[in-house]
Amino acid sequence: MNKIAVFVFLSIVFFQYSCKKSNPEPDKDIQSIIDNTLADNMLQDVLITLNNYANNYLTNNSSKIDTVPIVTISPQYPLDSFPKTMQIDYRDGINCSDGKLRKGKIIATVYSFWNLSENDSMTVELVDLTIDSINVNSNIVIKFIGDTTNMKYNFKTSNCIFSFNNGENFQIHSNKTINYISGFKTTNDLSDDIFLIDGESNGINRKQIGFEANIISSIKYVSQCYGGTITQGKLEIIPQDATKRVVDFGEGNCDKIVNITINGISFEIEL
Questions:
Q1: Where are the beta strands (DSSP E) in the chain?
Q2: Residue 113 burial by CB count (10 A; 0-12/13-18/19+): exposed, middle or buried?
Q3: Angle at Cα 97 formed by Cα 42 and Cα 85, nearest 5°?
Q4: Which residues of 28-56 are buried (b: 16+ CB within 10 A; e: fewer)?
Q5: Which of 49, 31, 68, 30 is nearest to 227 (CA)?
Q6: In this structure, are residues 210 and 218 in contact, taking their beta carbons and an 8 Å threshold?
């Protein structure tokens, strides 16, 4: 190969490399969005479960619950003795009335009668709880911060790890305010339950990349949509060493379509 041919060859390689550097692939990684949304949906499911069982076993109210899980209260008597431990044991798997398969245990230590006065609280441990095929272990602190006409909760998680059958996992820490805006008076009909969620979270996604998530417009969780999912609201997610993502869940339609904006470029996905 003569000198001219070598020069031409190197020039072509340099030109191609320069083009690739000047036109990088657009940043469209959404793993943190997927994992954060999954965590919000699953943890909201846990709150609904705990709220309904606590209403049945610790107050004079009643809610629609599955009666197949083994529920134990200790000490059961006297009724006004606290703290009490409430354990919901789904054993090796129960097909619940909402169509979800649940396994494992939810263990809650409750410090007073539930949903009656401000600062009623419980500490919760999720022990290999599986909802459908996703496993979650976590410590949770829930405080009732409302009253009998305004059902509102503070919901904090720690050591919260979600695991999948393929060996992947992610972890999250969250601090949320959850407002029960519809359905809390119709305790035996869960289909009309609607919640507004505010707050923030941070974690490490399935790709082992850290992220922060902040709700900038209250997200709405609707129980009757796909068995419970987010249908409205906005949040921003900031992955480690990456650009902020703005996530718009829409205006309340029962679908899984979200709009994502990254670096001024918007696109839709189905979660």
A1: 70-74, 84-89, 94-95, 101-110, 120-131, 134-144, 151-163, 169-182, 194-204, 210-222, 229-239, 245-251, 257-262, 265-270
A2: middle
A3: 60
A4: ebbbbbebbbbbbbbbbbbbbbbbbbbbb
A5: 49
A6: no
Give the number of C-alpha atoms closer than 13 A to the C-alpha of residue 212, restricted to the C-beta side: 10
pTM over 0.70: yes
Phi-psi domain of 192 (left: phi exceeds 0; alpha: psi -120 through 50; beta: other): alpha
Side-chain-side CA neighbours of 247 within 13 Å: the count stands at 31
Indicate the SS3 state at residue 233: strand
Tell me phi and psi for residue 181, to 5 degrees. Answer: -95, -15
Contacts of 147 (CB under 8 A, 6+ apart): 117, 118
Closest CA to 164 of 108, 205, 213: 205
CA–CA distance, 238 with 249 (Å, rounded to integer) = 17
Tokens 């692939």: give the residue. Answer: 25
Share of the chain above pLDDT 70, in %: 89
- Provide the 10 A C-beta neighbour count for residue 93: 10
Count of all residues that appear for the chain in the document: 271
Q: Kindly report, residue by residue over 199-231, the tens digit of the pLDDT.
A: 999 999 999 999 999 999 999 999 999 889 999
Please spell the DSSP secondary structure of 111-149, one letter per residue: -S-TTSSTTEEEEEEEEEEEETTEEEEEEEEEEE-SBTT
